[in-house]
Amino acid sequence: MTRDELKEYIAGHLEGKLKPLDSGKFNPLFEVIESDLLTVAQVLRDDENLKFDFLSCISGIDTGERFEIIYSLTSLAKNHRLELKVVLSRENPEVESVQGIWPAANWYEREIWELYGFDIKNHGNLTRFLLADDWDQGYPLRKDWDAPDFVRFPELER
Amino acid sequence: MSKLRTEEFTVNMGPHHPSTHGVCRLILTMDGEKVVKIEPVIGYLHRSMEKICENRTYAQCVPLMDRFEYVTAMSAEYVFVNAVEKLAEVEVPERAEYLRVIMLELNRIASHLIFYGSTAMDIGALTPFIYGLRERELIIDLFEMTCGQRLTYNYMKIGGVSHDIPKEFIPKCREAVKIISEKMSDYEGLLNENPIWLARTKNIGVLSADKAIAYGVSGPILRASGVKYDIRKNEPYSIYDRLDFNIPTRPNGDCYDRYCLRLDEIRESLKIISQALDGLPEGDTLKKVNPFNFRPPAGEIYSRIENSRGEMGVYIVSDGSTKPLRVKMRGSSYNHIQIIPELAPGGLIADLVAIFATFDVIMPEVDR
């Protein structure tokens, strides 16, 4: 499938659950609401023509206004790729764990929980592993994070 | 005689144990000599590079990438530079692309030679380490000749490469290719049919293809489990679509196959380097961009390449300013270390060392 065919196929197959975001010439990018994530993920992995069996990466993003999680998916069998985006609320960021579908998600979700403070529901092993065990200075990857020894470079401010 | 009472006990392995390759710590629950449970403890090398990148210009992020994966620093630089170039639509001169591929493949060989040596050393054979590092030196000399550095190169620049190669590079490189391809039989002669080596690696740590895919295992380990997938072929970047090379695979997914596959890959990389040297065009090596006022348009991209360890990716979000809004680095070791607790239990502690060694995990990629 070419990139456009893939986009069309997914949009047709998961109508109403996905919102295509224009990503120019890069991988197809779709937005999915949090409550639909697991259903969509299941279809993406199991559908005969999609077979997104390989989770490349999960990345948390803080744009300053809102929180997002990006799932980068690859299909080794069909050789195509896709990005799924979930937008989370700033007050209560929480998302369902996708470990049941892609076991590779385990540490990626744990890292997001640790560095962004998003609550990963049904994860089962949310413990600190990158930061110090007694870390109490908040969530470092958030844009509003500040700590006494964190140096910003004002000459590089936009 | 009454039965002896047995109980499980806990052993700490690392963080400075020589066979945990850096600073990984494993908490092992043992039943005699058998491993029951493994709990990896990471984070000793956490330098918060993702946060640092958000506070730097794009050009300033490149040297940081060297520290993300210092054994194949070229590919770590390349993955970032390539993603930024795609995002900002920077045209890269042809000669620079060829030079990049030559450097990437040389670096892949250097990494596999370290793998060859260190794996053998972990399992108890010391000679291969000397052999592997001896030939790696030829490659490191080539890097030093080109950009002045032996480990953290800062060679890739947004828009090209920092230095053109000196005129003695090509003959030296061809000589190195010749020497390494001749030495391949030595490497294989030392280990391939060595009964101790076979006993330690054959049918040890068997990883099935389905499990490998589910856990996001990539690169040589995935191919040693019989999955023919290589980003250089399946989603060609740079000039890989113009080069003729094979993707070696092995069917069994045990430690022995993982070892053999890397030697196969060295051969393919040598082929690529020869072809790239033959086709190397004349011309510029750098399209100048102003590093202080370089502003890619707003957008986001996940870009990835085939590193010597597997899929190396970077997720960059740009908001149109001089600094990235978010840089997420994806190193393959991060996934590989996750699957070790699934593979090793039930085996001996000595097998765990063999598994850990053939996974070729390096820690800066895990902790970042």
Morphology call of chain B: globular
Largest interface, C-beta closer than 8 angstroms, per-chain residues? A-B, 39 and 41 residues
CATH hierarchy class name of chain A: Alpha Beta
Q: Please state the overall shape of chain A, judged from the principal axes of the Cα atoms.
A: globular
Provide a descriptive summary of the structure in words:
- The complex is a heterodimer of chains A (158) and B (368).
- Chain A has 158 residues and is of the alpha/beta class.
- Chain A has one domain: NADH:ubiquinone oxidoreductase Nqo5 subunit (Beta Polymerase, domain 2).
- In chain A, 21% of the residues lie in helices and 26% in strands.
- Chain A is built from three helices and seven strands; from the N terminus they run H-E-E-H-E-E-E-E-H-E.
- Chain A has a five-stranded mixed sheet with strand order 1-2-5-4-3. Chain A has a two-stranded parallel ribbon with strand order 6-7.
- In chain A, strand 3 and strand 4 form a beta hairpin.
- Chain A is globular, with a radius of gyration of 17 Å.
- The model of chain A has no long low-confidence stretch (mean pLDDT 83).
- Chain B has 368 residues and is an alpha+beta fold.
- Chain B has one domain: Cytochrome-c3 Hydrogenase, chain B, CATH 1.10.645.
- Helix content of chain B is 49%, strand content 13%.
- Chain B is built from 14 helices and eight strands.
- In chain B, helix 3 runs antiparallel to helix 4 and helix 11 packs parallel to helix 13.
- The longest helix of chain B has 30 residues.
- Chain B starts with 8 loop residues before the first strand and ends with a helix.
- The interface between A and B is large, with 39 and 41 residues.
